[in-house]
Amino acid sequence: MAEDVFETDQKQSVEERLAAEALIVDVDGFEGPLDVLLILSRTQKVDLRKISILHLAQQYLAFVEKAKSLRIELAADYLVMAAWLAFLKSRLLLPPDPSEEGPTGEELAAHLAFQLERLQAMRDSAAKLMARDRLGRDFFARGLPEDVTRVRRVRYTATLLDLMQGYARIRTKDEFRPFVMDRDSVFTMEEALERMRGLIGFAGAWTDILSYLPDGWGNDPKRRRSATAATFAASLELAKEGKVEIRQNGTFAPIQLRRRDQDHA
Amino acid sequence: MPEDIETKEESLFEAPPMAEQERMCEAILFASAEPVSIKDLNARMPHGCDAAEALVHLRKRYEGRGVHLVKVGDAWAFRTAADLGFLMQKETVETRKLSRAAVETLAIIAYHQPVTRAEIEEIRGVSVSRGTIDQLIEMEWIRFGRRKMTPGRPVTFVVTQSFLDHFGLESARDLPGLKELRAAGLLENRPPPGAVPGPMGEDGEDQEDAEGQSELFED
Amino acid sequence: MPEDIETKEESLFEAPPMAEQERMCEAILFASAEPVSIKDLNARMPHGCDAAEALVHLRKRYEGRGVHLVKVGDAWAFRTAADLGFLMQKETVETRKLSRAAVETLAIIAYHQPVTRAEIEEIRGVSVSRGTIDQLIEMEWIRFGRRKMTPGRPVTFVVTQSFLDHFGLESARDLPGLKELRAAGLLENRPPPGAVPGPMGEDGEDQEDAEGQSELFED
């Protein structure tokens, strides 16, 4: 049987080799040396557990020889296996040398038998698995599933205290300070200008104008906004006076300034 | 599998028992991507089957269950029982504080009802966005009152029973007046804009303020 | 809608009767094409429900029907009875034909999981092409498991819930012939005595394996 497989395979392989100009081709249809061994083992027509590994090794070596004589290039795996089986064969044939280290021929043969049995077991299991009733072929899922709709609801709440404070806020505005501007959070351009005139002498290198914000004005958004606007306006004023140069590399990029030396003016 | 073929071949001569036909209808209707007509059911079931009768039994079997067999046009399908529809949606409720603009508008309506939009704006000193009014109406805290008998006959707003229920008030008249607010300490500290003292906290304020501001630009 | 909320709120104090819980599981599972975990069922049902118990009743109710309640990993799903597959030509999905290498690789992963690529190669005696693994991952039949605690910390492969669903398995423990294979010692990772050629047996991940397997099959 192995011979048959081999005969048909080698024809294909030769054609393939010629066509592809490949030096090495896998023997078509075989899934590696272990697979070849498994197929060869079937000619022994015995339980895999009782297989003669010695006989199998001989069969495999014959297979490789024949491939060589037909000038079929075998993949390296096959040749490595052939070499190893030749070694195993010699181990099995010669009486064990007690001085020699390492596993005995029988141990090696037993492991190979185990590997073959395991591969065969996995193949049988794969077949059983694929033969099971299968989803989409033998049994079916719901054809008309209803999706779970996700509803996100926002519920707004307020307490009576919120309400009264809100009202108080409006009424207070009227009662006590109808036109008073709250200046706590306002930094004026005049203040910024005064601050910057003191600092500008040290600005030899390009510096982000944000570094000129007064201390304590950088965290609160309102104060930062006001201070930034004032500082920017003051910088423009200083530029107009020829005291500084301003640059910005792109939209929203940091705005930088440096002192303009009078001699360049 | 061989049994199936036998069943099929037998069925050329004799229809399967009704219980079996019921199972078949059940499976087909379950797996089908759309409602199936009796004609199609009969075409798919072995020769001699009577889908119409099988469906009568099947429908009965699903009575009171979590899914029902329903007729859709001239076809049939399984559908979730109407009373279990709530299981088909995942609801997430997010509680958010009402914006400052909405709180103030609501407060004005509560204290001054019935009040027109123009009056609200006059009291608040800023325009009131349509969104704010709509939101309060949707929450069922305010509703339209009678039109004012002034030129243009503007609509007025009043608070609702839900409003009173929510805030634990018998009537809007129970809302504390200015004097009481002051006595309660609510008017004593002049609240600078953006930093209301007390339980409202300071963290929420910035974004509330932004909202209040955006209201100005919204419409 | 207000009724639903009431129902839900009531349930904080008392779970609905078991018959009602059964209906709810039935509705949720009918509505989903994918298996739904007990955790998800409990999350969607009113507070205090016990989906696990409801499912026991529900499964019994559908015994012998055209549609069955099946367990898939730790999730549940309704599936049509396999003996009625012949009625479903219309619904049949053409599954891509898997190569022999892919089928074998899949079986090895299922029976030996969690398993490294090197171990798969050792068992097959040939290197595993990337395409094979990719295809199985794409089909959602395998996924990456935990890395092995051996040198190089290689990734492992395990089968997925979709795999169990597709092959009608409650769990990986129910793989056909698993017990016999284990009894015969064929699922052990036996260290090769000395050097064995080829892609087999290059790494010694053996001591780890017993542990890895038990993790999957015994809990």
Written overview of the protein:
The complex is a heterotrimer, with 1 copy of chain A (265 residues) and 2 copies of chain B (219 residues). With 265 residues, chain A is mainly alpha-helical. Chain A is built from 8 helices and 4 strands. The radius of gyration of chain A is 45 Å and the shape is elongated. Chain B has 219 residues and is an alpha+beta fold. Chain B is built from 10 helices and 7 strands. In chain B, strands 1-3-2 form a 3-stranded antiparallel sheet. A 3-stranded antiparallel sheet of chain B has the order 5-7-6. In chain B, α5 crosses α7. The N and C termini of chain B lie far apart (71 Å). Chains in contact: A-B, A-C, B-C. β1 of chain A pairs parallel with β4 of chain B.
Secondary structure topology:
The complex is a heterotrimer, with 1 copy of chain A (265 residues) and 2 copies of chain B (219 residues).
Chain A: H1 2-20, H2 33-41, H3 53-69, H4 76-93, H5 105-130, E1 149-157, H6 160-176, H7 189-199, E2 207-208, H8 221-240, E3 244-248, E4 255-259
Antiparallel strand pairs in A: 2-4, 3-4
Helix pairs in contact in A: 2-3, 2-5, 3-4, 4-5, 7-8
Chain B: H1 2-11, H2 18-31, E1 36-37, H3 38-44, H4 51-61, E2 67-72, E3 75-80, E4 89-97, H5 100-112, E5 115-116, H6 117-124, H7 130-138, E6 142-144, E7 156-159, H8 161-167, H9 178-183, H10 205-218
